[in-house]
Every structure is written in structure tokens, then in C-alpha cells.
Amino acid sequence: MTNSIEIKQASKAYQRKNQTPVQALDKLDLKAESGDFIAVLGPSGCGKSTLMLSAGGLLEVDSGQVVINGQDLSQLSSSQKAEFRAKNVAYVYQEFHLIPYLNVIDNVRIADLALGSGSEQKAEEILKKFGLAERAQHLPSELSVGEQQRVALSRAIYSGAKIILADEPTGNLDSENAETVLKALKDFTEEGGIVIMVTHDDRAVAYAAKKLSMSAGQWSA
Ligand SMILES: Nc1ncnc2c1ncn2[C@@H]1O[C@H](COP(=O)(O)OP(=O)(O)OP(=O)(O)O)[C@@H](O)[C@H]1O
After folding, report:
1. pTM for this one?
2. Is there an atom of ligand 1 within 6 Å of 47 CB?
3. Which of 190, 221, 203 is CA-nearest to residue 34?
4. How does pLDDT run along the chain (221 residues), one tens digit per residue?
5. Which domains does the chain show, CATH number per domain?
6. Closest CA to 30 of 192, 16, 182, 61
7. For a pocket test of ligand 1, which of 7, 22, 58 has the largest count of ligand atoms closer than 8 A to its C-beta?
8. Are 135 and 166 in contact (CB under 8 A)?
9. Pairing with 90, which of 73, 108, 141, 168 sits 20 to 30 Å away (CA)?
């Protein structure tokens, strides 16, 4: 199955008290399909985080559409959207967002844990691929920064989502760990996934096949 995400003419403004609204997205279009590895670049405040949150349906756009694998997110109720997002989109952040009191393997299969379902074996296989087999029972606080990001990536891959939205995924990593994470993201796209990555990191930009620059909520040259 091919995967796709399409953002059509998306606009989003933030209204601050007694101030003129900030237009974070201004009729922005973006189209990505299986195999695409896209880096989104741009100065602080240009709307990159707003784009990522909107792309995953965590934030509603004021106008325009976000269509993932043919599904217009605005047509879903909030619970349907949460379910759809869990199946189709995974986030990887600069700060990892691991749950501190769960061990590594439970962090990886967190989405299934509450349901009492999921496969420990599948989680173990992914951890092994990232060189974390020996760390499965450790808490995040017992891991290095690079290992924590590999756990976050394992969680994204375990989820089965074919779209990864990554926000500065290498921001805290040394070159060896950055390389591991970027290679894994590239492999993910080569296996039919889509990666949209916000980054200021030249190492990460070099990995992306497509680079898009943003300025004031729009694409710039
Ligand atoms: N909740 C909010 N309320 C008001 N204004 C906001 C809110 N979130 C973001 N903004 C404003 O919208 C604009 C775009 O913000 P956004 O976080 O998307 O930019 P960014 O490119 O991700 O920035 P950075 O690189 O610094 O993270 C900025 O001017 C920001 O101040």
C-alpha cells in the first residue's frame, strides 16, 4: 500500500490578547508519498511546529485540509481522529518524550500496553535492530541520550504508522547517534514510509532527499 499525506491551502492563526494575530500557516501546501524524506527548514517562529502539529491532526487548521491516506482529518470526530492518528502517524521529538517510570520495552509498546495487547517479541526485535536488546528492562534515566532517542524511534516504528513527523530528532545527539537515527529514518522511507523532519542540523538536511524552506507560514525559495 502506498502512503500519502497532503496539506492543502492550510492556514492557522494564533490570536493573542490585545495583539494582532500571528499567521503561523498561510495557505500552505505540502504533498508527500511513500519513500519521501523531507526536511523542513526555516527561522524560529516561521511556523514549523505549527505545520507538524497540523499535519498530525494535533492542531486544527483554520482553513484548508489535511488528508492522510485519502482521509480528510476534518471529517473525523476527535475520538476517530485520535484512533486514526495512532494508526497512521508517529512523532519523534528532540526531547524523546519517554515515560520515566516505564522500562524501555514498555515505552516502545506503550500504545498497546493500556489495551493489554501487542507483541513483546516485535518490540524486542525492533530494539535489537537499534542495538538496545540489552537495555529492554532499563528505565529511560539509565540510558544515554542517544539510546533514549533510539527508544523513541523504536516506539515510532513499533506503532506501525507509516508517517513519521520528526521535530529536531538529532538536536541533542552526537554524530554517531545522529547517524544511527538518520539512517533508520532513511531506511523507514525506503520501506515505504514518509518522513517529514523539521531540522536545523546540517547532518539531517544532508539525509533528506527534499528540502523545503519556510518563512512566515509559507514556503520560501
Ligand atoms: N499557542 C500559541 N499562541 C500564540 N502564538 C503562538 C502559539 N504557538 C505559536 N505561536 C506563534 O506562531 C508563530 C509560529 O510558531 P511555531 O512554533 O510554529 O514556529 P517554529 O518555526 O516552530 O519556531 P521554532 O523554530 O522557534 O520552534 C510564532 O510567531 C509563534 O510565536
Report:
1. 0.93
2. yes
3. 190
4. 799 999 999 999 998 888 888 999 999 999 999 999 999 999 999 999 999 999 999 999 999 999 999 999 999 999 999 999 989 999 988 888 899 999 999 999 988 877 777 678 999 999 998 889 999 999 999 999 999 989 999 999 999 999 999 999 998 889 998 999 999 999 999 999 999 999 999 999 999 999 999 999 999 97
5. 4-220 (3.40.50.300)
6. 61
7. 22
8. no
9. 141
